[in-house]
Amino acid sequence: MKPAAKSDQLRSFLPYGRQTIEADDIAAVAESMAGDYLTTGPKVGEFEKAFCKLVNAKHCIVVGNGTHALHLACIAAGLSKGDYAIVPAITFLATANAVRYCGADVLFADVDPQTGLMRPEDALDVIRRNPGKKIKAMLPVHLTGQTVDVRALREICDQHGIVMITDAAHAVGSTAGNEMVGAGIHEHMSIFSFHPVKTIALGEGGAITTNDDAMAKKMRTLRGHGMEQKPENGPWYYSMEDIGYNYRVTDFQCALGLSQLAKLNRFIDRRRAIANMYDVLLKDLAPVILPPHRVNSEDPAWHLYAVRIDFEKLCMDRTKLMNILREYNIGTQVHYIPVSDQPYYVGMYGAQNLPGASYYYEHTLSLPLFPLMTDQDVIYVAQTLKEICGGA
Ligand SMILES: *Cc1c(COP(=O)(O)O)cnc(C)c1O
User: Fold this and answer.
1) Which of 37, 75, 223, 383 is a Cys-bridge partner for 251, taking CB atoms 3.0 to 4.6 Å apart?
2) 241-266 CB burial, b ≥16 within 10 A, e <16
């Protein structure tokens, strides 16, 4: 029998995530572009101030993308050759790569098989298995918008002299340990990404937030080639004490960011409503398909809606399911292949035995989740999954 959903030929493709750009966003960019500053101008500082206010942090440094943010945070944490940083195996490549940019080495931690989040015991396990190594940083990831146990992880960091950099690329607007993610209470630094699939879009964009004055100053300087103005030596004079980068962002991107930030609460509310709808609509598919396992009482600002699928019970592998869903114009994605399994890292550190990460990877699939989805879209995705998987 041909499912009814498939005959809906006019339905446009639903990606797993996408930006929401409205007329006022476009107007904000146009206005900024017509002004005096195409790159570093007033909007950069305004965006940084607004983002500080959002997450309750003292400092925000906006940069070209989330990967720049990770790189500068790793430098500010003091990572260099001979040092180590703990990174969960389930994350985007950039979290680990930033450590390598500094010449330091990555120690991959396992994760909770149900949530993909690094647990305190995973971090402790890495520390125990690596005596004598100079572990300088830990980069927990707030996967899908759900948050790690920041209090327990910070305690471990404090006991071992480790700088805690939370990768909050997925968690703009989430709370952790009763604080806004990025507030710098539990974490030393947090990094964010404003890529179009993330919660707010700058096109490309990223930021670091911190309450540490010295770290903030260092990252701000490194964003612009490590140049420091020294007017005492003359109005033209600048000096470079550390090697820096051009990790700047344009003024019109920040104009877009400001316009997007004003809508953040609406975006998050819609994301939560969609996640709640999916939870209810997919109930009948348990135990073959399970909704995300919710880790704590704090309602996350969901970036991804990642279901857990028992492909054996489904009698279908993930490739087949993804291909069928694509025929129905439903995009899905896998977040993530364990970074430790990537050829570069296997070549570097050998194959890792991280059963929680392997289990999570084998079972996860991200369904479409973005604010512009209508209730009908959500029902369509759930209905289609039921038609494909319901017989299992
Ligand atoms: C998107 C993302 C990044 C990198 O952000 P870019 O802006 O794409 O450089 C880092 N970590 C995680 C977990 C991400 O999802």
Assistant:
1) 37
2) eeebbebbbbbbbbbbbbbbbebbee
